[in-house]
Amino acid sequence: MNKYLTLLTDEKFIINSSLVRALDKNMSLNEFLILVYLDNHKNSSLNVDEIKKLFNINEEAILEAFSNLTMHNLVSITTSTDQEGRINESISLQNLYEKVLTSLNEAETKKEQADIFETFETEFGRPLSPSEFELINGWLRTGTPEALIKGALKEAIYNGVRNFRYIDKIIYEWQKKGFKSMDDVNKHLRNEDKPLPKDKKEKTQEEELFDYNWLDDDE
């Protein structure tokens, strides 16, 4: 246990917090320690003797842990030839870092998606219904940028229409015109040199509103 405490307090060893969050929770302690060692000795070979001294792990356990890491495609052995024709081996953690990056991106995406649901609930002043959740998820699944979705929501609120069908219509019109971001929308408006029309019809007039090309494009 003192060996592990030394590792955690030793300034020479850095335990990457992003790496820890991305790792499989079923990973053994030995596998984790080997990864920490390799992460601090990038592109080095597996120095079994040094690891034995650092962590008080026997050679068999070290090799078993390393084998498991390679089997799970977290580490790999790369070879190179120097100028004298000698073959050198080094350990690459590229696959591990890609896994960490993917995990971080997925976490950020989930956070952003949670934010967009909260934005809608705040603007509508109530919890979203299951069908409204599904509609937003549908926009996200089809690749609609979140900034564009929030922009359509903002435009609907500006026009005084808190209605998902109206927001869906805005998104449809923007996608039909090839807009990928709010910069595209604003650029189009500047080129047209006129503001988006404000329409404050009652709900009974919404069908007419949906048939109206609110961008008023003459294309």
Keywords:
single chain, 219 residues, mainly alpha, Arc Repressor Mutant, subunit A, 2 domains, two-stranded antiparallel ribbon, 11 helices, 61% helix, disordered N terminus
Quick structural overview:
The protein is 61% helix and 5% strand.
Low-confidence stretches: 1-5, 200-215
Strand order of the largest sheet: 1-2
Predict the CATH topology of the largest domain: Arc Repressor Mutant, subunit A
Give the end-to-end Cα distance, rounded to a whole number of Å. 73 Å
Main beta sheet: strand number and arrangement?
A: 2 strands, antiparallel
Helix-strand category: mainly alpha
Q: What's the number of extended β-strand segments?
A: 2
> Percent range for helical residues?
55-70%
pLDDT average, as an integer? 78
Q: Report the β-strand fraction as a percent range.
A: 5-15%
CATH class of the largest domain: Mainly Alpha
CATH superfamily of the largest domain: Winged helix-like DNA-binding domain superfamily/Winged helix DNA-binding domain
The H/E string reads: HHHHHEEHHHHHH
Return Rg in Å. Answer: 28 Å
Number of helices: 11
Structural shape:
elongated
Please identify, by name, the CATH architecture of the largest domain. Answer: Orthogonal Bundle
In the residues, how many domains can be counted? 2
Write a structural description:
The chain is mostly helical. The protein has two domains: 2-97, Arc Repressor Mutant, subunit A, CATH 1.10.10.10; 128-211, DnaD domain-like (Arc Repressor Mutant, subunit A, Orthogonal Bundle). It is 61% helix and 5% strand. The protein is built from eleven helices and two strands, in the order αααααββαααααα. Strands 1-2 form a two-stranded antiparallel sheet. Strand 1 and strand 2 form a beta hairpin. Helix 3 (29-40) packs across helix 5 and helix 8 (146-158) packs across helix 9. The protein is elongated and about 70 Å long. The termini are far apart. The model is unreliable at 1-5 and 200-215 (pLDDT under 50).
